[in-house]
Amino acid sequence: MQWAPTGLRARRGDSVITRLMAEQLAHPEMLSLAAGFTDNAVLPAALVQEACARLAADPSNAWLQYGMNRGRHGLRRAAAELLRGYPGEQELPLDADHVLVTNGSQQALYILVQLFCEPGDIVLVQRPSYFVFLELLQGLGVRALSLPGDAAGQLDRAGLEPFVEELRASGELGRVRLVYLMGAYANPSSGCLSGDDKRALARALRRLDPPVPVLEDMAYRELYFDAPWPARSLLAMEEWRDFPVVYLGTFTKPFATGLKVGFMASRERAIVKAVAKVKGHHDFGTAHFTQAILEHVLETGLYPAHLAGIRAHYRDKCRHLEQALRDHGLGAAGWQWESPLGGLLLWARGPGGTDTRLGSAFHRACLEREILYVPGDLCFAEGAPYHCARLSFGALAADRIAEAARRFCAAAYSAANP
Amino acid sequence: MQWAPTGLRARRGDSVITRLMAEQLAHPEMLSLAAGFTDNAVLPAALVQEACARLAADPSNAWLQYGMNRGRHGLRRAAAELLRGYPGEQELPLDADHVLVTNGSQQALYILVQLFCEPGDIVLVQRPSYFVFLELLQGLGVRALSLPGDAAGQLDRAGLEPFVEELRASGELGRVRLVYLMGAYANPSSGCLSGDDKRALARALRRLDPPVPVLEDMAYRELYFDAPWPARSLLAMEEWRDFPVVYLGTFTKPFATGLKVGFMASRERAIVKAVAKVKGHHDFGTAHFTQAILEHVLETGLYPAHLAGIRAHYRDKCRHLEQALRDHGLGAAGWQWESPLGGLLLWARGPGGTDTRLGSAFHRACLEREILYVPGDLCFAEGAPYHCARLSFGALAADRIAEAARRFCAAAYSAANP
After folding, report:
1. Does B283 contact A at CB distance below 8 Å?
2. H or E segment at B321?
3. Contact status of B177 with chain A (Cβ, < 8 Å)
4. Which of A75, A230, B134, B413 could bond to A295 as cystine, CB 3.0-4.6 Å?
5. Which alpha helices (H) appear in B236-341, and where do they start and end?
6. Can you say how many angstroms the Cα of residue B266 is from the centroid of all Cα atoms in its chain?
7. Domain definitions of chain B by residue range
8. Does domain A16-43+308-416 correspond to CATH entry 1.10.10.10?
9. Is B118's CB within 8 Å of A8's CB?
10. B23 at the A interface (CB within 8 A)?
């Protein structure tokens, strides 16, 4: 028989990440600078194995039973402690009851949009923003609208108040139900929000009444290269005290992508409770076993040493990629990028006329050379420029990064000189 | 500040399961016949530990990396093979591409409702039905409507065609977008659908045009006591060939609740693809590590022996509970139940005038005796009777079951003789 979707909110929008991940897994011969995988070489196999053995020694088997919908108490408490570990945030009044464990931070994003938005509502995002988040908004019939900023990911602070005024004038201000920010090493730009940026945002958004909930997605925060990004999280800033702020953290990128455990934290317990209710419908709790593994790792005190090791690893890979791109002439050809201070991504912008979109000559030139990247236009809510590319240095082994850079540069040269 | 939910579809409806699970975990001194936990004593700790050790020996660390959104290919193939293992279903034309791995079968239920329904649409359910499913429908603004049947969970075959005609007459037939069935050892009744039941349903539902999608939730199918339930799954029945049928299976109840891995299967690859797209928004893939554990267990061929062990274990616990209920006079007091042929649940109905609802004298008498059950009225879409109780024999150790039965019977006596 023929089956066609009959009617649903959630079906809209193609899933680019699904395609990227499938491409990467199905074509190991392709060199992928696209999918945001971490590096298998630094996944904490020994720590996980030790945790499993330790759990297995508990004859109660409770680690293999269902857990609570909100997540393990010890893991939630440890997550709150991690947040207090950042400079200037020791006083964060959070405990386990302010934290909820999710299937990666992605699930928290999904549920929070379900909670705060109806179809047709507006979510303010950065320019550029995380393309999976833009897709999920599209899937739920919610409209993304970009805060003023440039293609490099720099917030236009002076443009914020005029932007809000323009929304008011057009009658759309009342449809703004949520703000989505990545405070540190943002996907895709690897840019960070400064303290000034955050204060300017609070000032501009204070014009909304009631105060608009704000999500700060800190998925990459632990992956700084040399020092933590100095700006405090929104949760810890006096200027944001009157907003319902939700912090999104994860153990997926910084520990093990295969465990898929993230968390959300908020001073507003009503939000945590509301998310818990919806999570009760989604799956009534993230896998208890993977949570127990993480809780054990955090208890042993070995997590900081793991982080120190991968920070140096990804910094070296990032510098390696940048050097190879320069060596193969990308800078000389007019491409620009900011040197990332953390994260897994490099955000490259080509000279005037560059078109990196799916199906473009540039894209075809990359596929011919067996190299994948994320076309930058996918990362914009609207008014996308076509000259950007997201390059991930997470997954490829160090020796493959140079070859990937060589191919990418050859494709750029070929597309610019047909 | 004060925060109140502003507007969302998914917030409606209280989560009974969240409360039940929290109660069970927070009050270990309470004897719980409520939450649908499995028995820690038969959780496969050794199999999981062996699988973890085996995975850790793979130096690629790929088992700790992201996997595909749809789930591991080997696990999906193994799930399709499991389905072909049932009597009369060897010919099921399913392969890995017809299967998608989810966070327990609950996530599949949620996404399928998102896919097929808009707010205000109708989902047909059994009478009684799985209360978490009823809650998730409420959360999404979708209306549940019961197929004709009695409080014991027996489908009223003769009433099906008049029921459909009545829907047509009332103009509601066009709003029916989905049918949700539990074919074997249903939650809460532990009833099963016979081949005649299934054929009668197909006949009655054939009047809908286009054909309505049907979900067969088989979460308890592997947990038969003595022999598999003989009726074939809808997927394998000629009479259902023209319907978009989705089969929901799981490794959560029959293997390890703490791993939270389920799956859906359908002949309609368009449905699998549509679910994958939404899952890409929810979490872009179930934890890869727990999937790798299950795939290893299935490959080793040790899964059938595990199942054989727990089947005998739960059968013995069920008979133990029934005997204790009889010994303590529940039958003599006018309560009835069908002896389950599988599953983890006993569905008890009190004599006329019994009221088991939350806050009732019966409920208070149970709480005073530190005994928990699920009030049966929560399991009905509408027109709920008040005299039923769902008693789970999954979690309690065998020696605690007799004491729980004693307390339940004492509460029943006390409430009936105030």
Report:
1. yes
2. helix B303-327
3. yes
4. A75
5. 269-282, 288-300, 303-327
6. 18
7. 16-42+305-416, 47-301
8. no
9. yes
10. no
Distance in Å, alpha carbon of B306 to nearest chain A alpha carbon: 15
Other beta carbons within 10 angstroms of residue B97's beta carbon come to: 14
Cβ contacts of B22 on chain A, cutoff 8 Å: 68-69
Structure tokens at B415: 């409430």
Residue ranges of chain A whose pLDDT lies below 50: 1-13
Structure confidence at residue B5 (pLDDT): 40
Q: Model pTM?
A: 0.95
Query: What tens-digit pLDDT sequence spans chain B (418 residues)?
Result: 334 343 344 444 456 766 676 766 777 778 999 988 999 999 999 999 999 999 999 999 999 999 999 999 999 999 999 999 999 999 999 999 999 999 999 999 999 999 999 999 999 999 999 999 999 999 999 999 999 999 999 999 999 999 999 999 999 999 999 999 999 999 999 999 999 999 999 999 999 989 999 999 999 999 999 999 999 999 999 999 999 999 999 999 999 999 999 999 999 999 999 999 999 999 999 999 999 999 999 999 999 999 999 999 999 999 999 999 999 999 999 999 999 999 999 999 999 999 999 999 999 999 999 999 999 999 999 999 999 999 999 999 988 999 999 999 999 999 999 8
Is the separation of the CB atoms in A193 and A240 below 8 Å? no
Instruction: Please report the pLDDT score of residue A4 as a whole number.
Output: 40
pLDDT score for B1: 35
Residues 77-106 of B with CB under 8 A from A: 103-104, 106
Q: Which residues pair with B389 in a beta bridge?
A: B348, B375
Phi/psi of residue B143, nearest 5 degrees: -95, 130
Chain A: residue whose CA lies nearest to B177: A6
In this predicted complex, what is the ipTM? Answer: 0.95
Phi, psi of B276 (to 5 degrees): -60, -40
Q: CB-based contacts of A276: which residues, under 8 Å, 6+ apart?
A: A69, A70, A100, B15, B18
CB contact under 8 A, A283 and B64: no
Which amino acid belongs to residue B384?
Answer: A
Position A1 scores a pLDDT of 36
What is residue B258's predicted lDDT score, i.e. its pLDDT? 97
8 Å CB contact of A288 and B260: yes
Question: Residue A295: which residues within 8 A CB-CB, separation 6 or more?
Answer: A72, A74, A75, A78
Spatial separation of the C-alpha atoms in residues B327 and A239, rounded to whole Å:
66
* CB atoms inside a 10 Å sphere around CB B106: 27
Among the partner-chain residues B15, B115, B243, the one whose CB lies closest to the CB of A5 is B115
CATH number of this structure's domain B16-42+305-416:
3.90.1150.10
CATH number for region A47-303: 3.40.640.10
What are the CA-CA distances from residue A346 to residues A185, A252, A257, A394, B29 (Å)? Answer: 10, 20, 20, 10, 54
Residue B120 tokens, joined: 């205000």
| Residue B6 near chain A (CB below 8 Å) | yes
Domain A16-43+308-416 matches domain A47-303 at the CATH topology level: no
Beta bridge partners of B216: B181, B247
Asked whether the beta carbons of residue A10 and residue B292 sit closer than 8 angstroms, the reply is: no
> From the CA of B106, how many Å to the nearest CA of chain A?
5
- The answer to whether the CB of A94 falls within 8 A of the CB of A76 is no
pLDDT, residue B209, reads 87
Query: Taking CB atoms and an 8 Å cut-off, how many pairs form between chains A and B?
Result: 300
* Nearest-Cα residue of chain B relative to residue A270: B3
Omega prior to B128 cis, within 30 of 0: yes
- Token pair of A162 as six digits: 């005029």
Could you say which residues from 103 to 132 on chain B have a Cβ atom under 8 Å away from some Cβ of chain A? 103-104, 106-107, 110-111, 114-118, 121, 132
Which CATH number among 3.40.640.10, 3.40.830.10, 3.30.70.590, 3.60.15.10 corresponds to the domain B47-301?
3.40.640.10
Q: Which amino acid belongs to residue A155?
A: L
Angstrom distance (rounded) from CA A367 to CA A389: 14
